[in-house]
């Protein structure tokens, strides 16, 4: 009898608890002041992204078409770049574009003279298949600037040579050709246009001041451009290349090694005499022998102290 009473009491207690709990919840839900939180429609309707990527159809189509282009048709530089870009996409794999990457950008500027008679002649030279030479810009005597390659493309202007540890200068530089037969002075309009272009390139690609060089710096003995009349001092005053303090030159100390200084600047010292001629053509301009005088050493020492 006692067991039956206990079960009965426990049963009544459970009914009472359930009843109280239900009443409280109902009261709360029915309270008009209470904000009812509902599942967001955006969340509910969002399709769950599976852990996979699908092939980009456009890239797939472009890649599949690369083999259908007639190799005998001359392509523009933009078309060639697009073709090369497409060949870098492997259509047999899925493709998902990453957002962290860099384009290859130039870190040097190399200045040339054309050794030809007109801007038009140089442009034609760079468009003939057999010449195998090109440059990014050509600047006429009248200041006209013609861009012939995208800055990010690798031009064929430097050739064999070395500057510091760089032997493939074409891959890291922009080439600028100045319309000049190799002997004439450079007109003011031409230099002014060059300065404007250099300022744009320096700021756009963060090119250091020391990285504006001539072709003869990179290939002494093989190349002599730009010629001895090129105003490197004016360029250096604007932050393009280097120059020494002409008003105050200190004699180089006895312990100063000019060959080590030239190597530190970037010159390839395999042919010291050719390097000295290239150095003197750029900074001395009068005596172009392959021997360093005391004044030549003073100039080199000043550059060494000032920039290196």
Notable characteristics:
308 residues; alpha/beta; Lysozyme-like; 5-stranded mixed sheet; 40% helix; disordered N terminus
Structure description:
The chain has 308 residues and is α/β, with parallel strands linked by helices. Among the domains are: 103-242, Peptidoglycan recognition protein-like (Lysozyme-like); 244-308, no CATH class. Helices cover 40% and strands 7% of the residues. It is built from 11 helices and 5 strands, in the order ααααβαβββαβααααα. The protein has helices spanning 2-30, 41-45, 57-65, 77-87, 119-125, 188-205, 215-218, 232-237, 258-265, 272-283, 294-307; strands at residues 108-113, 137-139, 145-147, 173-178, 212-214. A 5-stranded mixed beta sheet has the order 3-2-4-1-5, with helices on both faces. Strand 2 (137-139) and strand 3 (145-147) form a beta hairpin. Helix 9 crosses helix 11 (294-307). The relative contact order is 0.09. Residues 1-56 and 62-69 have low confidence and may be disordered.
Produce a short descriptive summary:
The protein is of the alpha/beta class.
Structural class comes to alpha/beta
Sheet with the most strands, sense and barrel status = 5 strands, mixed
Distance between the termini: 108 Å
Number of strands: 5
Determine the strand fraction and express it as a percent band. 5-15%
Question: Which of globular, elongated, flat, extended, rod-shaped describes the shape?
Answer: globular
**What is the CATH fold-level name of one domain?**
Lysozyme-like
What is the string of helix and strand elements? HHHHEHEEEHEHHHHH
Rg, nearest Å: 36 Å
Query: What's the level 1 CATH class of one domain?
Result: Alpha Beta
Mean pLDDT: 82
Query: What's the architecture of one domain in CATH terms?
Result: 3-Layer(aba) Sandwich
Instruction: Estimate the helix proportion, in percent.
Output: 25-40%
Uncertain runs are 1-56, 62-69
């Amino acid at each position: 009898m006692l067991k039956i009473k206990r079960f009965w009491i426990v049963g009544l207690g459970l009914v009472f608890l359930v009843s109280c709990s239900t009443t409280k919840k109902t009261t709360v839900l029915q309270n008009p002041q209470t904000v009812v939180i509902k599942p967001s429609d955006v969340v509910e309707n969002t399709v769950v992204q599976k852990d996979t990527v699908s092939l980009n159809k456009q890239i797939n189509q472009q890649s599949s078409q690369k083999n259908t282009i007639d190799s005998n048709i001359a392509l523009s530089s933009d078309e060639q770049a697009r073709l090369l870009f497409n060949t870098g996409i492997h259509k047999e794999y899925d493709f998902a574009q990453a957002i962290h990457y860099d384009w290859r950008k130039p870190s040097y500027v190399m200045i040339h003279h054309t050794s030809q008679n007109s801007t038009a002649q140089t442009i034609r030279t760079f468009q003939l298949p057999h010449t195998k030479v090109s440059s990014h810009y050509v600047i006429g005597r009248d200041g006209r600037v013609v861009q012939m390659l995208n800055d990010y493309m690798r031009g064929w202007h430097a050739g064999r040579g070395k500057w510091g540890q760089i032997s493939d200068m074409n891959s890291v530089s922009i080439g600028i050709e100045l319309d000049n037969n190799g002997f004439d002075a450079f007109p003011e309009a031409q230099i002014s246009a060059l300065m404007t272009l250099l300022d744009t390139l320096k700021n756009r690609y963060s090119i250091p001041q020391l990285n504006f060089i001539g072709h003869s710096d990179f290939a002494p003995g093989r190349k002599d451009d730009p010629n001895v009349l090129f105003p490197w001092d004016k360029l250096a005053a604007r932050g393009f290349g280097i120059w020494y303090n002409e008003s105050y030159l200190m004699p180089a100390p006895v312990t100063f090694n000019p060959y080590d200084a030239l190597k530190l600047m970037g010159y390839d010292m395999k042919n010291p005499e050719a390097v000295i001629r290239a150095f003197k053509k750029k900074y001395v301009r009068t005596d172009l022998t392959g021997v360093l005088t005391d004044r030549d050493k003073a100039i080199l020492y000043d550059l060494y102290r000032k920039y290196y």
